[in-house]
Design a protein that fits this description.
- The chain has 2 domains: 1-83, no CATH class; 85-123, no CATH class.
- It has 3 helices and 7 strands.
- It has helices at 12-26, 64-77, 106-115; strands at residues 30-31, 38-43, 46-53, 56-61, 88-89, 92-97, 100-104.
- It has a 4-stranded antiparallel sheet with strand order 1-2-3-4, covered by helices on one side. The protein has a 3-stranded antiparallel sheet with strand order 5-6-7.
- It comes from Paspalum notatum var. saurae.
């Protein structure tokens, strides 16, 4: 009798998610109400965010100590390897710096241009005036950009 899901079986992703979810909930994480693969942990003024995508886990937080502690805890509980700072996810390239986090698709754009034999094409200026100031959405809710 098989007592655990084997990698490659159709039940494996569900079993892996259930094990991760139970571990995170026991560790006082709160599961997202809309996205059940998003988990949040608040410790005082610090926050740790964990996102599960198939067999990848992306995590980060407001405190280096909290992030390091979580990485150690995960390594003790699960067989895993840390890949370092997030640079690529779901086709998106991610650049993190002191000015903020920037997401772009330069690699994918080059791939598409090459696929359609347009990689030697000449760029054109954008049809929108680059000096246009976008108005604030007065009916919208204010967002703290530092949280995102």
């Amino acid at each position: 009798m098989l007592r655990k899901a084997l990698y490659g079986l159709k039940q494996a992703p569900r079993a892996r998610y259930a094990r991760l979810k139970n571990f995170l909930l026991k560790s006082r994480f709160v599961m997202g109400s809309v996205d059940k693969t998003l988990f949040l942990l608040s410790r005082g003024s610090d926050t740790l965010i964990v996102h599960i995508y198939v067999d990848d886990i992306i995590f980060g937080g407001s405190s280096h100590a909290l992030v390091s502690s979580f990485a150690e805890q995960m390594s003790r509980e699960f067989e895993m390897s840390l890949m370092g700072e997030l640079q690529f996810f779901l086709g998106l390239q991610i650049k993190q710096s002191t000015e903020g986090t920037f997401v772009h698709q330069a690699k994918y754009t080059r791939y598409i241009l090459k696929k359609f034999a347009m990689d030697n094409s000449k760029p054109l200026a954008t049809p929108m005036d680059i000096k246009t100031v976008l108005d604030e959405d007065e009916d919208g809710e204010a967002v703290d950009q530092r949280e995102f």
